[in-house]
Amino acid sequence: MVNEDEVTLLEESYPWSNLKQKSKSSSRILGLTIALAFSTFGFLLGVFIGPYLPGRLDTLCLAKTSIPSPLTPDVKISYHEQMFNSTLFGNSIYRQEPSPEVDQAWTDIGVYLGVILVDEDKALKAGISKGHITTPPEAGGQYYVNVEVFHQLHCLNLLRKTNYWNHDYYAKLGENEFVNEDHIVRIHADHCLDALREQLMCTADIGVLPYVRVKDKGRAYPDFPAAPHMCRNFDDIREWARDAQLGKEWTQYLRDPQPGDIVLDQIP
Questions:
Q1: Residue 79: beta bridge partners?
Q2: Is 164 found in the same domain as 105?
Q3: Structural domain includes residue 187
Q4: Which PANTHER family does the annotation name (predicted)?
């Protein structure tokens, strides 16, 4: 026969609640550990792999090789591999004898694209100073600017026009740059030569040109079309600048110099 004390002992429950609490605590710790491990893995994946994802690499490349530009919020700058075709005896429209067709081809790629307006916040991020010329405050206080690539193409076109074989043709036309006296045209051309030199040195192309043999020739020749290049999406940039340009009469809207404006002693 079981006495009362034995019954009490038999009925005393095992502390299952404590065991469940420990089990829940262990599960929670395990869950946090797993979550932390996945978070760490995701972070490391983002750091080492993320920059190389499509699109992200283009953004990083642009940030590393260019100063901020007002174009980038509006134009998705992307990159593509392209083979050049400037062969030694090629017949590109851009290198043919002077003619209205050749001049139009140069015009079409943007050598005469005009001034555009840039909001102050974008202008200051691009390195423009507050003292540069703007529209009046009541008109928005935007900055007048040119996109560099089209100034560079303009310079290249001027060098084409002023070279020994083409100069007389354009001097007789007396249009565009040649409305000026000859010594001014020469100063303009010298400026362009130096501007392109600076640009080529700044963006030094480290691609390489292989050489080939040619039948019945006793020397080697550079194989110009064989060298791949990484290029930006020029057409998108040109279309953006074309749509954003002002009319040729933009200078009539210039306001008088204001306190704080940059006023130089001579033409830069």
A1: 232
A2: yes
A3: yes
A4: CYCLOCHLOROTINE BIOSYNTHESIS PROTEIN O, YALI0B05434P
The number of helices, as runs of H, and strands, as runs of E, in the chain is 9, 6
Domain tally, the chain: 2
Q: Which residue has the tokens 């001014």?
A: 184
181 and 201 in a common domain: yes
Handedness of CA 168, 173, 175, 178 (dihedral sign): positive
Give the model confidence (pLDDT) of 107-116 as tens digits.
999 999 999 9
**For the packed helices 148-162 and 182-202, what is the interaxial angle rounded to 10 degrees?**
130
Q: Give the residue-averaged pLDDT of 44-63.
A: 62
> CA-CA distances (angstroms) from residue 13 to 3, 22, 136?
18, 17, 87
Q: 250: closest CA among 92, 131, 158, 116?
A: 116
**Whether residue 208 sits in one domain with residue 88:** yes
Is there a single domain that holds both residue 60 and residue 83? Answer: no
Please say whether the beta carbons of 195 and 152 come within 8 A.
yes
pLDDT of residue 173: 96
